[in-house]
Structures are given as C-alpha cells and as structure tokens.
Amino acid sequence: MQPSDTARKSKGILTWPEGERPRERLLRSGPQSLTDAELVAILLRIGVRGTSAVELARHILKKFGSLRAVAEAPLSALLEVKGLKGAKAAQLVAAIEISRRIALPDSRKSINLKSTGDAAAYLRSRLHGLAEEHFRALFLNRRGILLEDALLSVGSVDQARPPLRLIVARTLQANASAVIVAHNHPSGAAQPSESDKLFTEDLYAALKPIRVQLLDHVVVAGDSVFSFADSGIMDEIALAKATG
C-alpha cells in the first residue's frame, strides 16, 4: 500500500517507496522524468516540519507562478517564503545563477564583439529576467575583444548608475580602448529615459579626454533590447560634443 499524500507530507520523502523518490527517479530515468516541483525539491533537499521538500517546492511554484518566475524573483522575495531560509535559499539561488551563466559564451574562449548586434545579444543574456536594475560595463581592446565584463552597481530605477569616475577608473585598469555600458529595466519598455540619455552624454564626455570611445549604451527589458548606437543617439551625442 502506498502512503497517502497526507502521510507523505508529514513523514517526509524518506518514507516514500524508493521508486517514487525524486532523487532516485532522476538517477534511474533522467531529469526529464521529473516534474518542475520534483526538480526544485532535489535542490531544497529537505522540507520543513509537516511539509516534504516536494510540497514546499509546489508551494514555491504556486506562489510565483512558474519556474521562470522563480528564477527572476529577487532573493528578498524568495526569503519571504515560509520554510525557504538559509541553506535552502542559497542552494536554489545558486542553481538559478549557474543556469544563467551556462547561457553565456564560454569564458575559456575570447569573446569578440564585432558589432552592436553581438554586444546587444551578449548583454541581453546577462541582464534578461533580473528583478533589480543592474548596470554593467564591457571593456574592449582595439579589436573588439572583451577584456572585462563588470557589474558596477545594482539598485532601483535611476539609482543603479555608478559614478562616472568609477567607470573611468575601471577603463584605465583594464587598459581598454572602448567601452559599452548597459542596464536593464526590470518592468517596462526598453525605451531609454531622459536620465539615461543625459548619463550617456556625461559618460561620453568623461571618456573622451582619455581617448576611449563609448561605443554604445544598451537597455534590456524582457525580450526587447534598445541600442543607443543603432538608434543614432550615439552619433547625435558625438556630433553635439564635437561642435559644442
């Protein structure tokens, strides 16, 4: 006789028949055989008093709506879930970050950003689905090889921009010839704000004296990407600074 759902929840996964336990089923039949909740349960490892890891995982998925929504939720929101504290939260967030980084180009190979399209695609993979606004800077050599990809600040809207002096300092440290900056709009369109444009103008002016070119400012929002270079705004800024 198989244990009821109530018994399972109260006694934990270890009381289940071995053939029904998520970890054993994964090893026997592969990860594709498991439900979303069972996969999350393996990351959680154990549940809490009166609730199995699978039940806790189901609660998390129900609260956020989907695996993607869980992955895009800020850590603060995950920590508000009853039973998801300390090691459990750390394990879940670490797995999400690993999956995000797997989607990036192989760090063992040189990354050559030959066009604004290459840069936009790369930055979308870095900034897509984040719950807070992140500001990143890519430092390139003369051939477009990525020397450093730096996360410079995290914050709320219009508060995630790093000081201009920090970007200039990191540019000099990387010995870069060109810079591309980017940030995400967690909610809303990729269309840049007026403050985004003013910041870009100021950064262009700050990099010009050290003979470093600001190639682009990319804004990511959901599946949409806005490029200051492709839109012509970078050309307008360069012309204004040259004649100003």
Describe, in plain words, how this protein is organized in 3D.
The chain is an alpha+beta fold and 244 residues long. It contains twelve helices and five strands. The chain has helices at residues 5-11, 22-29, 36-44, 53-64, 67-72, 75-79, 86-102, 116-127, 164-174, 194-207, 228-231, 233-243, and strands at 133-140, 146-155, 178-184, 213-221, 224-227. The protein has a five-stranded mixed beta sheet with strand order 2-1-3-4-5, with helices on both faces.
Supply database-style keywords:
244 residues, alpha+beta, Cytidine Deaminase, domain 2, 2 domains, 5-stranded mixed beta sheet
Compact description:
By secondary structure, this protein is of the alpha+beta class. Helices cover 48% and strands 16% of the residues.
